[in-house]
Amino acid sequence: MENKDPIFLRQIIMEHYANPTQKGLLKNPTSLYIHQASDSCIDDIHLELEIANNKITSAKFDGIGCAISTAVTDIMAVEIIDKPVAMAIKIIDNYLNMLFERKYDETMLNELIAFINVPKQPNRIKCASIGINGFLKLLQEHEKTQK
After folding, report:
1. So where are the chain's domains?
2. pLDDT digits (tens, 9 = 90+) for 6-38
3. How far apart are the first and last CA of the chain?
4. At what angle do helices 130-145 and 85-99 cross, to 10 degrees?
5. Does domain 6-146 sit in CATH 3.90.1010.10?
6. Collapsing DSSP states into helix, strand and coil, what is residue 117?
């Protein structure tokens, strides 16, 4: 994503916060679920993944969260749908590398680049990673069951 203007990045975050496309659980018996809650803020979300033939067919979430946690969870859900599990893990790892100021590949981030300035506000890192860590745990657990 070329445009890193802070106003433009904030618009991405606010759009996904106000109108998250992946909010609402399907509650299918085959879905993988995890609950993520913060002990220091409002973030309390449930995450759901549907995986078929080692490919993510659905990524959903529900619950209460601040603008950052809601937006990043929604954007990541969009990013990993239709991806093989290994690629989704790679996208998540790359995003977390950006968040923790390690080497990352910007070309893999798309709208996730909107969170590039979060490391400047360390108190927001947990918000920007709570849903992501949940998706990662679900994907790692799925990989373990496939071996």
Report:
1. 6-146
2. 888 899 999 999 999 999 999 999 999 999 998
3. 36
4. 150
5. yes
6. coil
Does the structure show a pLDDT above 80 at 135? yes
Token pair, residue 40, equals 């220091």
Tens of pLDDT, residues 55-93: 999 999 999 999 999 999 999 999 999 999 999 999 999
Q: How far apart are CA 121 and CA 107, in angstroms?
A: 23
| Average pLDDT across the chain, whole number | 94
| Residue where the block lists tokens 């992946």 | 22
Q: How many helices (H) and strands (E) does the chain have?
A: 4, 3
Count the neighbouring beta carbons within 10 Å of the beta carbon of residue 51: 21
Q: How far apart are CA 16 and CA 67, in angstroms?
A: 8
Kind plus residue range of the DSSP H or E element containing 57: strand 55-64
Q: What's the confidence (pLDDT) of residue 71?
A: 98
